[in-house]
C-alpha cells in the first residue's frame, strides 16, 4: 500500500513544529546543560604549531594545581587511545595515517590536542592548562596542495603528502575533445569553510561499573557507538550513546572526534563522569572544515552548444589526517559534475592531499556543492564563449522530462525530474527577460553599478544510500535506516527512528507520516530518537537521507502494524481478515463499514491479549529496516540578480528566486525553512566565508570575530517556489531537501557577479567575492585588456 | 564577591568569583540553562538576556556587574508556565527556528528591539538583529516572526 492510497490528511500540511515548545522556552536539553553528581571538567591543550615534533610534555605543575584531578599528555594514553577511524578507504592503496586522539610525538595542524587537564570546574581546568610545559621542535608547514605534491616538499607523513588518486569516467574523452569546435578550460578554487553549527560541541561521559553512557552533540549516535567500540575496545553492548538536543550540525557533527574518544577513556580512567564543552575559538581549529579543492575542469562542445565531454581533475585538501569520511567527500562529487546534462564522455580524477591544516570532512552538501559550482560556472563560461543565453545553453543539454528514467554519463539512473517546469517557473518569478533588458541598458549606458544575473540549474544525489553502492565505493557501512512503531494500549503511538535530528523537525514530519499511515491524530504520535538504548538501530542523519530512507522505513513499519492489526481485528469481529478493508484508521468489514475496529481498539486488544488468535503474539509493535535501491535526485532552478558597484567592488543581492523540486512535500513550512537556510549558507560561501591560514600555518579566522558568518543585515529575503515531480523510488514520493539550497546558491551568486563583470573582461572572481576581490578582478581584467 | 541579582523574578544572593561571566552564573549557579553559549568573542548573541530591560550578551558581562540587576532569560520571558510571550508565539508560528540554539538570544534581542521601536520595517529588524547569528534559517522567518509579533498578529495558543 502506498501513501497515495490513503487519505493524505497530514502529509502536505504546514504543521508548526512539535519541537518548538521546548526550544522557544529554554527547556532544551543541550549536552552542555547536563550536570551529574561528581562530574569533572576536561580542558584540552592544543598545538599552537601547524607542524612540529613534540620533544617533551610536562604536566606535573598542572597536576598539583588547585582543583585538578588529573593531567595527561598523549604519551600517557599512547597504549590505549588507538587511532581515530576513517571509514572510507576509497582506494586499495590509500594512505591512512595513524591519528592518535592526543598527539604523542608529532603535531600536524594547529589545534591538535597535545595534553589535557581534568578539574573540578571549567575555570580550574583552563587555569591548569597554562601550567603545562610543552617543548616543540617546529617543522615547516605544508600549506599548498600543489606544492605538497612537488618533489622535495616537506613530508607531513612518512608515506608522503598524497593520500590517494581516484580515477573514474565513461566514454572516449579524447575523442570528445579532439577537434571540438569549442573547448573551455578553467581552474576554480573551492575555499575552505568552517561549518559553524551554532551549538559548539560538548560531551558528557558517565561510567557506571564497566558500562558507559555518553551524551554528545552529534549527528550520528549509532555510528559513533560502533566506532567507539572499535577504537577503544570497550564492548559495544556496554556503550550507550545519546544525542540529546543538538544545535545544528551541517556535517560537522558527522564525526568520531578525538574529544569523544578521550572523554570515554578519561571516564574509564577516573571512574567519574567527565564533561567537555568546546569554546568557539577552539571549535574553529578543531571541528573538521569543509570544501577546499582546486578544480581543474575542461569542457568540449559543438558550435551549437551541445556538450561533447567534460574532464575534471581535482585536488582535494584532506587536511592533516583522514577523519570518518574525509576521502569520500570529494568523490560524492564525481557523480555530480555532469549534473543534469547529457554528454558523450566524462572523466574524473581526484587526488587527496595532506596539508598541515585542520582535517576536512562533510559539510552541507559534501562534494556535491563543489561539483555543482564548477559545472554551473563552466556552463555560464561556455554560454558567454558561444554568445548564448545561459539558460538556453542549459536547455540544449539537459535531460528532457520525457527522457526519465535516464542513466547519466556518470552511471546514476535519475528516476524523475522536470527541469523545464522548474526553470519556467523560476524565470517568471524572477522577471528574467525584464532583468536582462535592464542589464543591457546599464551596460550600454556604462553605469558604474552593473546588474548581473546568475543561473544555477542544479541537481543532487540524496537519500544516502543503497548499501550495495556504498560497498562498491569501499565505504565501511551501509545506508539503510530503521524504524519501529510501538502501539501503546491507549492508542497513542511511539515512533522510534534511527534518524537523529538536530534541527530538521523530524518529530513533526515523522508524526505527519504516521498519522496518515495509521489514521491516528497528529497529536497522538510521539517520535523518539537519538539514544542507542531507545532507538537501537540507525544510520543517523546526514546527506539529505532521513526522510527518503528513514521516512520509508516508517511507512514500512506502519504497514506491518496495519497488517497485524487486520488479523487481530478479524478475530475481534469474528470475520476473515480477507473481509476487512482499511480506511481512516480502522479495519472494517467490506460493505458493512459500521462493523469495524479502530487501530486504538485493536492496540488495546493486543495489550489485553485475552482473545488473540492462536499463534498471534500479544503486541502491535513493528520494526522495519529499509535499504534504498537508488539515490533520490531533487533538482531546481535558482536565479540570482546582483548589483555590483564597479567603483567599490560592493555586491548587493537584489533578488533571489529558488524553484526547487524535492518531490512530494511532507511539511511545506519545514521545506521552505530548509531552502532558506541552505541558500544562506551557499551565499555565505560565495560572498563572506573563508578559513584562511597565514604563511606559518596559523588559522587566522579562528574566532567568530574573524570568520564572517552573515547576519540578518547581510542577507536578503528569498523568493521560493516549488514544482513537484514525485520520486518513483519510494512510497512517499519524496526526494530530500536538506542540502539543496546550499548546493544551488553558491554558483547562482558567483555566476551573477561574473555576469555583471563580463563586459570588463572578467571571467571569474575567486570566492569569497569580497569587495576587494571584486574590485581587483575588474582592475586586473582592465589592465590585462589595456596591455593587449 | 557577594552579589544579589534577580533572575526571572527570583532573587539570588550568591558568592561568585570576580571573573565569573554572567552567562556561566546563570547556567551553572542559578540553574537557568535556557541561555546557551555560542561563542567566546561576543559575536553570536546566543547568550543574549535582558538586564534591567535592555538586551546584553551575558558572555560579555561579569556576574558581579549584574549585582542589583533584574535579569530576564528566555525562561522568564512569558507570564508563567504554559504561557508564551508574543515573540515566542510568533517564532513558533513563522517557523523562525530550526535547531533552536540561537533562539533564546534572538527572541530577547528582538524583545529589546521592539521595546525601542514597536513597529519596525523589515530593514530595521534586519539591522537590529545584526548582533545575533543563526546558521539554520537564513533569517527570513526570524524577520517575519519579529514583524508578526510587532503587528500583534501572534495569537496566544500553541498549535503544535
Give structural notes.
The complex is a heterodimer of chains A (788) and B (160). In chain A, helix 17 packs across helix 18 (599-608). Chain A is of the alpha+beta class and 788 residues long. Chain A folds into three domains: 3-27 and 480-626, Aldehyde Oxidoreductase, domain 4, CATH 3.30.365.10; 34-139 and 198-248 and 253-286, Aldehyde oxidase/xanthine dehydrogenase, a/b hammerhead (Aldehyde Oxidoreductase, domain 3, Alpha-Beta Complex); 365-462 and 631-787, Aldehyde Oxidoreductase, domain 4, CATH 3.30.365. In chain A, helix 10 links the parallel strand 14 (307-319) and strand 15 (345-354). Mean pLDDT of chain A is 97; it is low at 1-7. Chain A is built from 21 helices and 28 strands. Chain B has 160 residues and is of the alpha+beta class. Chain B has two domains: 2-76, Roll (Ubiquitin-like (UB roll)); 86-150, DNA polymerase, domain 1. Chain B contains five helices and five strands. In chain B, strand 3 and strand 4 form a beta hairpin. The longest helix of chain B is centred in the last third of the chain and has 14 residues, at 103-116. The radius of gyration of chain B is 15 Å and the shape is globular. Chains A and B meet through helix 1 and helix 19 of A and helix 1, helix 2, helix 3, helix 4 and helix 5 of B.
> Can you tell me the CATH class of the largest domain in chain B?
Alpha Beta
Largest interchain contact: A-B, 60 and 60 residues
Largest sheet descriptor of chain A: 7 strands, mixed
**Total number of helical segments of chain A?**
21
- The global form of chain A is globular
- Give the number of domains of chain B: 2
Oligomer: heterodimer
Describe, in short, the structure shown.
The complex is a heterodimer of chains A (788) and B (160). Chain A has 788 residues and is an alpha+beta fold.
Amino acid at each position: 500500500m502506498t501513501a497515495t492510497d490513503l487519505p493524505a490528511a497530514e502529509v502536505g500540511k504546514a504543521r508548526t513544529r512539535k519541537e518548538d515548545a521546548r526550544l522557544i522556552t529554554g527547556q532544551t536539553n543541550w549536552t552542555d546543560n547536563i550536570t551529574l553528581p561528581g562530574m569533572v571538567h576536561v580542558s584540552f591543550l592544543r598545538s599552537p604549531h601547524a607542524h612540529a615534533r613534540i620533544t617533551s610534555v610536562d604536566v606535573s605543575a598542572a597536576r598539583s594545581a588547585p582543583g585538578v584531578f588529573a593531567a595527561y599528555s598523549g604519551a600517557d594514553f599512547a597504549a590505549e587511545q588507538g587511532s581515530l577511524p576513517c571509514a572510507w578507504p576509497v582506494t586499495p592503496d590509500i594512505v591512512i595515517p595513524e591519528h592518535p586522539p592526543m598527539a604523542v610525538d608529532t603535531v600536524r595542524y594547529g589545534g591538535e590536542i597535545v595534553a589535557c587537564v581534568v578539574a573540578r570546574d571549567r575555570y580550574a581546568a583552563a587555569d591548569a592548562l597554562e601550567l603545562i610545559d610543552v617543548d616543540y621542535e617546529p617543522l615547516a608547514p605544508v600549506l599548498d596542495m600543489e606544492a605538497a605534491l612537488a618533489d622535495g616538499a616537506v613530508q607531513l607523513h612518512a608515506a608522503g603528502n598524497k593520500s590517494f588518486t581516484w580515477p573514474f569516467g565513461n566514454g572516449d574523452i579524447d575523442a570528445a575533445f579532439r577537434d571540438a569546435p569549442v573547448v573551455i578550460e578553467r581552474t576554480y578554487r573551492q575555499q575552505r569553510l568552517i561549518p559553524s553549527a551554532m551549538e559548539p560541541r560538548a560531551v558528557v561521559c558517565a561510567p557506571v561499573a564497566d558500562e558507559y553512557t555518553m551524551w554528545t552533540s552529534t549527528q550520528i549516535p549509532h555510528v559513533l557507538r560502533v566506532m567507539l567500540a572499535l577504537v577503544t575496545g570497550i564492548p559495544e553492548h556496554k556503550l550507550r550513546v545519546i544525542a540529546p538536543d543538538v544545535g545544528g550540525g551541517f556535517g560537522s557533527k558527522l564525526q568520531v572526534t578525538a574529544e569523544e574518544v578521550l572523554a570515554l577513556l578519561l571516564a574509564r580512567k577516573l571512574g567519574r563522569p567527565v564533561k567537555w564543552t568546546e569554546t568557539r575559538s577552539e571549535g574553529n581549529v578543531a571541528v573538521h572544515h569543509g570544501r577546499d579543492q582546486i578544480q581543474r575542469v575542461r569542457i568540449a562542445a559543438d558550435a551549437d552548444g551541445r556538450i561533447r565531454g567534460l574532464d575534471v581533475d581535482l585536488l582535494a585538501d584532506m587536511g592533516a589526517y583522514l577523519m570518518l569520511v574525509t576521502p569520500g567527500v570529494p568523490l560524492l562529487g564525481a557523480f555530480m559534475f555532469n549534473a543534469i546534462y547529457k554528454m558523450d564522455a566524462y572523466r574524473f580524477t581526484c587526488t587527496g592531499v595532506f596539508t598541515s591544516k585542520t582535517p576536512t570532512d562533510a559539510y552541507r552538501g559534501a562534494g556535491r556543492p563543489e561539483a555543482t559550482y564548477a559545472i554551473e560556472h563552466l556552463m555560464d563560461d561556455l554560454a558567454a564563449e558561444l554568445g548564448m543565453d545561459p539558460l538556453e545553453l542549459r536547455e540544449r543539454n539537459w535531460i528532457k522530462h520525457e527522457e526519465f528514467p535516464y542513466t547519466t554519463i556518470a552511471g546514476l539512473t535519475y528516476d524523475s525530474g522536470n527541469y523545464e517546469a522548474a526553470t519556467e517557473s523560476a524565470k517568471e518569478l524572477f522577471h528574467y527577460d525584464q532583468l536582462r533588458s535592464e542589464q543591457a541598458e546599464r551596460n550600454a549606458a556604462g553605469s558604474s553599478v552593473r546588474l548581473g544575473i546568475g543561473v544555477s540549474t542544479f541537481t543532487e544525489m540524496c537519500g544516502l544510500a543503497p548499501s550495495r553502492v556504498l560497498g562498491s565505493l569501499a565505504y565501511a557501512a551501509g545506508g539503510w535506516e530503521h524504524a519501529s512503531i510501538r502501539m501503546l494500549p491507549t492508542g497513542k503511538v511511539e515512533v522510534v527512528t534511527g534518524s537523529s535530528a538536530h534541527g530538521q523537525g523530524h518529530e513533526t514530519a515523522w508524526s505527519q507520516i504516521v498519522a496518515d499511515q495509521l489514521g491516528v491524530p497528529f497529536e497522538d504520535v510521539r517520535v523518539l530518537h537519538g539514544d542507542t538504548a531507545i532507538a537501537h538501530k540507525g544510520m543517523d542523519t546526514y546527506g539529505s537521507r532521513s526522510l527518503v530512507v528513514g521516512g520509508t522505513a516508517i511507512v514500512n513499519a506502519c504497514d506491518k502494524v496495519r497488517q497485524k492489526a487486520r488479523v487481530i481485528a478479524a478475530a475481534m469481529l469474528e470475520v476473515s481478515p480477507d473481509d476487512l478493508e482499511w480506511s481512516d484508521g480502522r479495519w472494517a468489514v467490506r460493505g458493512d463499514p459500521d462493523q469495524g475496529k479502530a487501530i486504538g481498539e485493536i492496540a488495546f486488544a493486543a495489550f489485553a491479549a485475552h482473545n488473540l488468535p492462536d499463534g498471534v503474539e500479544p503486541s502491535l509493535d513493528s520494526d522495519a529496516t529499509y535499504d534504498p535501491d537508488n539515490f533520490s535526485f531533487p533538482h531546481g532552478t535558482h536565479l540570482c540578480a546582483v548589483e555590483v558597484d564597479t567603483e567599490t567592488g560592493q555586491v548587493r543581492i537584489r533578488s533571489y528566486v529558488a524553484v526547487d523540486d524535492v518531490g512530494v512535500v511532507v511539511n511545506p513550512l519545514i521545506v521552505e525553512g530548509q531552502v532558506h537556510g541552505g541558500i544562506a549558507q551557499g551565499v555565505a560561501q560565495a560572498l563572506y566565508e573563508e578559513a584562511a591560514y597565514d604563511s606559518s600555518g596559523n588559522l587566522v579566522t579562528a574566532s567568530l570575530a574573524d570568520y564572517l558568518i552573515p547576519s540578518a543585515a547581510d542577507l536578503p529575503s528569498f523568493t521560493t517556489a516549488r514544482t513537484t515531480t514525485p520520486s518513483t523510488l519510494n512510497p512517499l514520493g519524496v526526494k530530500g531537501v536538506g542540502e539543496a539550497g546550499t548546493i544551488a546558491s553558491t554558483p547562482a551568486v558567483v555566476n551573477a557577479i561574473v555576469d555583471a563583470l563580463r563586459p570588463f573582461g572578467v571571467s571569474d572572481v575567486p570566492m569569497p567575492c569580497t569587495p576587494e576581490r571584486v574590485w581587483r578582478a575588474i582592475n586586473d581584467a582592465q589592465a590585462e585588456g589595456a596591455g593587449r | 564577591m557577594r552579589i544579589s541579582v534577580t533572575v526571572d523574578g527570583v532573587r539570588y544572593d550568591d558568592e561568585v568569583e570576580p571573573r565569573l561571566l554572567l552567562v556561566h552564573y546563570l547556567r551553572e549557579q542559578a540553574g537557568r540553562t535556557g541561555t546557551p553559549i555560542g561563542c567566546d568573542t561576543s559575536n553570536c548573541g546566543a547568550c543574549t538576556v535582558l538586564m534591567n530591560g535592555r538586551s546584553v550578551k551575558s558572555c560579555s558581562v561579569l556576574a558581579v556587574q549584574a549585582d542589583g540587576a533584574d535579569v530576564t532569560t528566555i525562561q522568564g520571558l512569558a507570564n508563567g508556565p504554559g504561557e508564551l510571550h508574543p515573540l515566542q508565539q510568533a517564532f513558533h508560528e513563522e517557523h523562525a527556528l530550526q535547531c533552536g540554539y540561537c533562539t533564546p538570544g534572538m527572541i530577547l534581542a528582538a524583545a529589546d528591539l521592539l521595546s525601542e521601536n514597536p513597529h519596525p520595517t523589515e530593514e530595521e529588524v534586519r539591522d537590529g538583529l545584526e548582533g545575533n547569528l543563526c546558521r539554520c534559517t537564513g533569517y527570513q522567518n526570524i524577520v517575519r516572526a519579529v514583524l508578526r509579533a510587532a503587528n500583534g498578529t501572534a495569537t496566544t495558543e500553541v498549535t503544535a
